[in-house]
Design a protein that fits this description.
Largest sheet: 6 strands, parallel
Distance between the termini: 16 Å
Helix content: 25-40%
Number of helices: 8
CATH architecture: 3-Layer(aba) Sandwich
CATH superfamily: NagB/RpiA/CoA transferase-like
Number of strands: 10
CATH class: Alpha Beta
Number of domains: 1
Order of helices and strands: HEHEHHEHEEEHEEHHEE
């Protein structure tokens, strides 16, 4: 990323944060992954129960590792044999970590899910939801955000998981009904009824898919 792209993202982040505020959500700007990690840890209280529903962006800033080493109760579903129990624990967690598949310049969050554990926890359950979002995920509007989720995030994720879907072979959405589809539930978060529940850290970097 050159200095002009960096500055453009910095200015755009101001607009996105304003949009999030209008939707009863909290936005933060981090010029680097290290600063994103600092902000994230400031938003998580000592002793909090924390879990997550996937999220390469969360790992990219080193948050799971920091939580494991700190005074937190981090539930790592990758280290728990009973995956269902780990997923259900998310609904009663103090903090749920995630990223977005895409979001709009005015603060609407767009997520697609296969098992629905991630989108359902975003919608309801955990006391706080903390998103780590690279500026590469910001789109013009809801239509372009959904298009990004279906044609960029989904094909990369099915390839990553080794699934057999049309988009794994072509790189673009076929609106399929494959048994392996991960595009089962779509969640568009346009407003948070509960103040101080949804927090979005915008990172001036290319994070996730």
């Amino acid at each position: 990323m050159n200095e002009f792209e960096f500055k453009r993202n910095e200015l755009l982040a101001t607009k996105v944060i304003k949009g999030l505020k209008s939707r009863n959500m909290c936005g933060y700007y981090a010029p680097s992954k290290d600063e994103a990690l600092t902000i994230a840890l400031e938003l998580i209280d000592e002793g909090n129960t924390v879990t997550m529903g996937g999220g390469e962006s969360v790992h990219a800033i080193g948050l799971p590792s920091a939580l494991k080493q700190g005074p937190y109760e981090f539930i790592d579903r990758d280290e728990i044999e009973d995956k269902r129990a780990a997923m259900l624990a998310a609904y009663d967690a103090d903090v749920f970590l995630s990223s977005v598949n895409a979001m709009t310049e005015d603060g609407v969050l767009v997520n697609i899910d296969g098992n629905a554990n991630r989108v359902s926890a975003i919608a309801q359950g955990p006391k706080k939801v903390l998103f780590i979002v690279g500026m590469n995920k910001v789109c013009d509007d809801v239509d372009s955000a959904i298009k990004r989720a279906r044609n960029v995030a989904a094909p990369i994720n099915v390839q990553r998981f080794g699934l057999n879907t049309p988009c794994a072979k072509t790189g673009s959405c076929a609106n399929c009904k494959s048994a392996d589809t991960i595009c089962c539930q779509f969640l568009v978060t346009r407003y948070s009824r509960h103040a101080n529940r949804i927090h979005v850290i915008l990172v001036n970097d290319m994070l996730g898919f």
